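Hi R.,

Here's the chain you asked about this morning:
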Amino acid sequence: MSEMGGRRAARGGGGAARRAERTAVSLETARFITRNIPDFEVLNAEALEIIEHNAETVLEEIGVNFVENPAALDRWRAAGADVRGERVHIPRGLARKLCATAPRSFTQHARNPERNVDIGGRNLVLAPVYGPPFVRDAAGGRRYATMADFNNFVKLGYMSRWLHHSGGTVCEPTDIPVNKRHLDMLLAHMTLSDKPFMGSVTAPERAADSVEMCKLLFGADFVDSHTVMTSLININSPLTFDGIMMGALEVYAAANQAAIISPFIVGGAMAPVTVAGTLTQVLAEVLAGVAYSQLVRPGAPVIFGAFVTSIDMNSGAPTFGTPEASLITYGAGQLARRLGLPYRSAGAFCGSKLPDAQAAYESANSLNMGLLSGVNFMLHACGWLEGGLVASYEKFVMDADQLGILHGLARGVDVSENGQAMSAIREVGPGGHYLGCDHTRANFKDAFWRSDLLDYKPFETWDEEGARDTQALATIRVQKMLGDYQQPALDEGIRDSLTDYVARKKASMPDAFL
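And the predicted structure, written out as tokens:
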């Protein structure tokens, strides 16, 4: 930490930056969650051993495909795997042995050291929605996302008290060419926020750009020895690792930057319809992906990922907040802990088209599932709508508000002298009330979680103020947060070098929209 502080002081210096810091709006961002409550476990020892045995059988007898990636096949062959064409059969125990070099936890550094996050152990880091091509707000409805929307979501994430992480592709800015938009997205995360962020994974060369831009932001020596990005590597379930995602993984692993190795599971479509069958496939895919990262660079930080939902067998649409998805998420958490890896899953998932009751029910189920399953990194923690096709402004702030409940639940029960409250019970005695006692006066500010959004006013007051529902209140909050936003200070030399890098890279290639 001392090296971090000294290094960052040198990079963030300058009179203009210090003056900007003195005049900036003071933001309170909660520290990442550390659980003081137990994980909820649904699998007994026998079930875990069966799933682990079956996953090894899948790797050895069925194998996994590493497509359009001859270098990956060469690495596996050298490690002792049986490679037949693009199919890799991994001998029992080999993948688990390779996974042993991955760290149990790691720190992702932010450009503001106060925003650093520790991923793993009993910790939970919350990050916003990732990947929607559409956005929605109450005024404009559903529309294709733009770079202006992307910037707004980064600002909302920066202003949100309970979010620890800026995320990655919080929406797809469709007004920017596909081959160039990663540069603008990274620049937004680096300049509009000082929270940690994710890199690009849509092509290996875009992952390389992410690393190079981080070297401009943090300093090359710092990036070489510290993790400053956590990026999402999806597996093409079932059992297929494509050259694009694996190429991005190779870049990040070689640079010692973290990657989430995450099967993308819609039960009944990309995995079996049963919980145990899906868990078997998830574990097999994660074992192969994590092991491959360690073939690239032993010790590279990785996260056991599991994006899991079920399917509506009538329409074929994905469903969220279901008991089956919860059981898989709980079980995958147990498997991740046995493997000794940080765990990514859950989020504010819903299939609703609007931030309505369906969205609230499904998201609440999914968020609580994530807390209790032992998730260490929760992507999609706010803003997700319509099965992930839409990033919603109103739902972003609604979800972000509810994330405060996860912080409160994770603290557990205080049994200190203050928590026991015996002084209050003695003071009030039979038949009294606690509103004015010394203990209440000393604790009332922090005694209960308080929403920054929901309405608890009497009916008459609520009615006089326009009888606003939660979506209307969320619209007002979005406007206020964006109106209050002030850009965090950044050394002008660093900002100029980032802007110049983006401009030069864009000028070096023609626009591509596919």
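The mean pLDDT is 94.

Let me know if you need anything else.
M.
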